[in-house]
Structures are given as structure tokens and as C-alpha cells.
Write a structure and sequence with these properties.
45% helix, 3 domains, 17% strand, 4-stranded antiparallel sheet, 14 strands, 8-stranded mixed sheet, rod-shaped, Alpha-Beta Plaits, Rossmann fold, alpha/beta
Length: 465
Amino acid sequence: MDNRQFWSLVRSRWLVIVAFILVGLVVASAYVIAATPSFVSSAELFVAASGGDNTIDLAQGGNFSQQQARNYSAIVNTDAVLDPVVSTLGLSTTSSKLAAHVSATVPLNTSVISISVDDATAAGSAAIANAVAASLVNVITKVAPTRSDGTTPVKIQIVQRALVPTHASGLNVIVVLLLGLLLGLIVGVIIVLLRELALAPLRTAQQAETVTGAPLLGSVVKETTRTPRLLESQHRRYSLRAEQYRQIGMVLRGARVEEEPMVVMITSSVGGEGKSTVAAQVAVALAAGGTSVCLVDADLRGSTLATYLQVDDGPGLARVLDGTATMTTARQRRGKLSIFTGLSAEENAGDLLASPRAAKFFSDLRTRFEVVLIDAPALLPVADSSIIASYADTALLVISSGSVRASEVDEATRTLSSLGIPLVGVILNRVPAFTFARLRRGFTKNGHESSTDHTAAEIEKTPSI
């Protein structure tokens, strides 16, 4: 998805994104309302070294007082300091819990100790801060060393009592609301993108290869008429579409291992993707190249090949599998192409395909033809293809550009993987003609462009099957 597609998607889904933004703001507002207010108040103490009246003594005293300030700040959260505070103020807590709300810092190169306390009430934070400062002075006075004359080399005193704060701190309402808005925006865009990726139709060859993990055997331009025409028709031999099917046939022919017979199941994710058309056209292309090909219409619930190939329904595959016809009587020929039509048998299609006769039928075909193409039902609606997969060497997945979801193709691919049948490749069918606009110039007959290669505009005006 490029930038243009991204912004087009955002514009088309802006209501969804706005809804998530509003949800983000609502959540942020609820957090602001429910959050417990926190008030912070601070008291400051000054540590000074006594004695000395010359410059050297004063400098040494200053360094000593800074060091002592750091030492004293380290005992602010001890029980010796906080127990008296809890007792004096009658707090319903313990000194260890109170310590989590008390902090002491010493600004760089100073002898000042700043004691900060956060509390749910403004008056409480100030009272506790002042009580902690007073308790610290008492503790230091008791533990500080004394001279022979009874004086202490260090003095500590409160220089700034804590004041009752006028507003709560720690929660910036505007910042919280902006974060809620931003989070809602991000979640909304992600949801829209994920939904687009899951539900959007698969359109490009790159998407087909990415989703399936299989190579692209070819792309086929969108049909120009409601009734597709076979490649063997005189007026279709030189079209771009004909060449595309010939290339697919060449790829399949080259996929044969050591000239061994190959049975290929041609299927799709859902119905209506044109797999039967592709199967017939590829079969004609292979036969035209000299390969002995058998095309089997195994879609017994919705057989269409007979109509498309303009052949008799005949006994059909269903009659061969139920024992009322033989392979010889059911087989129809068109040059090197042999055809077994389906003849609808919707009620017991699964039973017929899973029967021993079916296994023998496909085994016999393997010994008689170089390539066997099985037009199988779509993978997701019915389980028939799961049965047919056991008779095939590999599978070919037809994807109709712009009409099947990437999630459906992914599910079909995983179904094939679970059946243990390798995916030889994918064919992107019904690709818009403008994709191949520059290739049309190369397909000519006797130096003139084929009359069947219509312009992109003409093709887009023609409904497809």
C-alpha cells in the first residue's frame, strides 16, 4: 500500500478513526476524573560546619558540610526519622509506607537538604514535610559527634518551612487528554488498516505471491465478452490472452519431472473465480503444443466445462464413477485433448469422488496421458477438493483479481498445505486490461495488430463473466 492508497483509505474510513479518537478522549477523561490528586510540599534544611576563621578553614568547612548534607539526606527515609513523624501526627500508616512518599535531595555543590512529601491532601503534605524536617534535626543532633567542650562541628537547621500547596501536581490534564487523543488515533488507523488487509480484495501479482508463498505462473487479462472463447478459435490465436495461456502451458510442461506423467488439480478459493475457464484454456494450450492432455471436470456439484467447451454432456465423470459408464464411452476428444465432462451429481458427489472407482479412474489416466488437469471445486465452500487432492501430484490455484479477499486466499493456501499437496503456483485471472496496455503492441498478425486485442477502455466497458 503506497501513500496515495493509505490517505485514500483514511479519507474513506474517517468516521471510524474519529470514533476511536473520541473513545481515547473518553478514556483519558475518565482517568483524569478517577485519578487521586497528589499534593507536593517541600521543606529545606541547611547544614553548616562551625569553627575556622581563615580562608582555608572556611573552604574545608564548606566541603565538609556538603559531604555531611549528602550523608544526612540518606537517613531521611529511615525509621529513626519517620517513626516520630507517624507518632506525632497520628498517621494511619507505617514508617516504611510513609517512606515511599518522602524524598530528600541535595542540589549540586550546596549544603541544602530539600525534603519533599506527596500526599492526597495539601495540608497533609505540608504537615508531614515539616515534621520530617524537625525529626531529622533531632536525630542529627543526637548522633552528631561533639567536641571536648560539648559543641558539635556541624549544625543543621530548618531554613524554609513547607507551605500548603495551592494546586495538585503530577497530573497534567492537557497532556493526559492529548495522549488519549493520540492513542485513539493510532488504534483507529491500525484497526482500519488491519480490516482493509483482511477484507480487501486481492488485486496484484505481488499480493498473490505474498499471500500464497507460491510463484506466479502467469496473469490473464480480463475477458472481453460474456461468453469466453477458446484459444483454438482462428480469431483468438494472436491475442494477448492466448499468449498468456501458452506461457502458462509452457511453465506446466516444464514442471514435469523427467517426463513423468503429471496430475494437476486446478482449483480456487471460492466459486466464480474462473478456474474452469483457466483449466480449459490451459488444456487447449498444452494440446496445441503437442502434449497429450486429459481434462477432467471433477466439479460434480456445478459442472460447467461441457457448456464452455461446447461438447456433449455425455455420460460424464459421475456415470463413470457410479459404474453406469466406462472410460471409453465417457471420453470425448478434440485432437490431442481428451475430455471427461462432469454431469452434475450434487447429492452424492463426495461419495463418488472418494470411491475405489475414482482412485482407479485417476490412476488409469496417469498411465495414458502426459498431463492430467482436474477442474476441482473451490476449496472453501465444499470438501470435494480435499478428496481430489489425494489423486493429484500438485495444485494450481486460480485467483480472480479484485473479487476474492486475501484472507480467503490465505485460508485456501493453508487448506492445501494441510492436505499435503504442493502448490506449483498461482494464476491471477481477470486482470484489468490497462495493466497490459504496453504489451498489446507486441502481438500482431502479418505486421498488423490483432483485431481481438481491444483497448483498455473498451474492455472496461464490457462486463466479464
